[in-house]
Amino acid sequence: KAGVTQTPRYLIKTRGQQVTLSCSPISGHRSVSWYQQTPGQGLQFLFEYFSETQRNKGNFPGRFSGRQFSNSRSEMNVSTLELGDSALYLCASSLLFGGGNEQYFGPGTRLTVT
Amino acid sequence: QKEVEQDPGPLSVPEGAIVSLNCTYSNSAFQYFMWYRQYSRKGPELLMYTYSSGNKEDGRFTAQVDKSSKYISLFIRDSQPSDSATYLCAMSGPRNAGGTSYGKLTFGQGTILTVHP
User: Fold this and answer.
1) Integer Cα distance of A67 and A42 in angstroms
2) Is the pLDDT of residue A1 over 70?
3) B residues 92-111 closer than 8 Å to A (CB)
């Protein structure tokens, strides 16, 4: 069974631009969560989607948004990019949403903002 | 203070050693505990998954959870150079908790482990 895929793998953007990242979960998984990983803050939760609905959101500004499609694929968008948005963005999929579900991560998208 | 504390190391051990990795946490609502392994420039890989207190063994890996002390551990026996990676502990609240306890995983900072031949 194929794992979680994320595209693109690498991105370079300039301040003020916006970016869209894509995630395809493991086949049959219906929940997708997004995390940001930086050397200073580690892995931080962005949001979780299930059945095309955002179920939970972390403490990030409104510039960070996401959505989920009927096939469970998900996208996240960051508008008005700032230098501090440079990070590895990770997507994780699980069968269901809610505490205790095993989450499987993709390889991540490395975003560099210059 | 972070909800989950993990010594970042780095930790360097000789091949064949027993490795002990630990995390402490402050949120008593955490019920599910996981360990992930992350190689450089890769996504985290789920190693161990445990519910509530107790031990779980899988090959060379043993996970322990002590909820009374809010302390979890991962032991790696007969460590190999291929075990060199960053190890992340993660935890989440109960199912159907509502509020902010859904599928959100709260991670430790990760411990960098090097196993040298």
Assistant:
1) 24
2) no
3) 92-97, 100-110
Does A97 contact B103 at a Cβ distance shorter than 8 Å?
A: yes
Using CA atoms, how far residue B80 sits from A45, B18, B110, B113, in Å, is 31, 10, 19, 11
Q: Which residues of chain B does A92 touch, with a Cβ-Cβ cutoff of 8 Å?
A: 105
How far apart, in Å, are the Cα atoms of B70 and each of B31, B32, B36, B37, B57? 10, 12, 18, 21, 20
Copy the structure tokens of residue B29: 């609502």
pLDDT digits (tens, 9 = 90+) for A17-71: 999 999 999 999 999 999 999 998 999 999 999 889 998 889 999 999 999 999 9
Quote the minimal CA–CA distance from A39 to chain B in Å.
9
Contact A9, A111 (CB under 8 A): no
Three-state DSSP state, B81: helix
CB spacing of B96 vs A43 below 8 angstroms: no
